[in-house]
Write a structure and sequence with these properties.
Layout (H helix, E strand, L loop, with lengths): L1 H5 L10 E2 L14 E2 L2 H28 L7 H29 L2 E2 L13 E2 L3 H30 L7 H4 L14
Helix pairs in contact: 2-3, 2-4, 3-4
Length: about 180
C-alpha cells in the first residue's frame, strides 16, 4: 500500500490475480488466474491523466473565480478546494478502476474458462490507488498553486493569480484565532 502512495505514477502492478470461475461439480478448485496487463496499464494511465486534469481544473477555478486580493474568503475557498481536490483525487481512481474501465482475464490463465472474460478489478488494488490519489492530489494542488501564482502572478492581467500570489496558508491560518 505505501509503495502505491509513494509512487502514484509508477507502472501498474504486474500479474494482478483474479478468482477463476468455479469448476463444475466434483472437480478440484482452480487456482487464481491473472488480469490481462494491457487493459490494466491503460486504466492506470487514464486514471493518472484524469486525476492530473482534475487538480489543474481545481487550481484554475480556485484562483480565477475571484479577482480580488488575498482575503479571508479566498483563504477559506483555497482550503475548501484543496480538500475537495484531494477527495476527488481519491474518487477518480476508485471509480475508474473499480466501476468504469472494464478489465478482463488473461486468456489461458483460468482452466475453468480459458477465454478472456470480463471481470471486476480487485477493490483492494483500487483502494490503494485511491489512497495514492488522495495524497498526491493534495500535494499537486499545493505545488500547482505555488508554481502558477509565481509563473502567472507577475502580470496584473492574470487575475486571481496576480492578486493572490503564493499559497495562502503561510500568511493566514483559517483554523486559528
Amino acid at each position: 500500500m505505501w509503495q502505491s502512495v509513494l509512487h502514484l505514477w509508477a507502472p501498474p502492478p504486474v500479474n494482478v490475480s483474479l478468482a477463476c470461475p468455479p469448476p463444475p461439480a466434483g472437480e478440484a478448485p482452480v487456482p487464481n488466474g491473472f488480469f490481462d496487463p494491457a487493459p490494466v496499464v491503460a486504466a492506470y494511465q487514464w486514471t493518472a491523466l484524469a486525476t492530473g486534469l482534475l487538480v489543474l481544473a481545481a487550481v484554475l477555478a480556485c484562483y480565477l473565480l475571484d479577482r480580488r486580493s488575498l482575503s479571508r474568503r479566498f483563504v477559506w475557498r483555497w482550503w475548501a478546494v484543496l480538500g475537495a481536490a484531494s477527495v476527488a483525487g481519491a474518487l477518480v481512481p476508485l471509480v475508474m478502476l473499480y466501476l468504469i474501465v472494464p478489465q478482463q482475464a488473461l486468456a489461458g490463465t483460468c482452466e475453468t474458462n480459458p477465454l478472456a472474460f470480463i471481470e471486476t478489478f480487485p477493490l483492494a488494488d483500487a483502494l490503494n490507488r485511491a489512497l495514492a490519489g488522495f495524497v498526491w492530489s493534495a500535494l499537486a494542488f499545493v505545488l500547482l498553486s505555488l508554481l502558477l501564482t509565481r509563473a502567472a502572478g507577475w502580470h496584473p492581467a492574470a487575475g486571481g493569480f496576480f492578486h493572490n500570489r503564493g499559497c495562502p496558508w503561510p500568511r493566514i491560518n483559517p483554523f486559528g484565532a
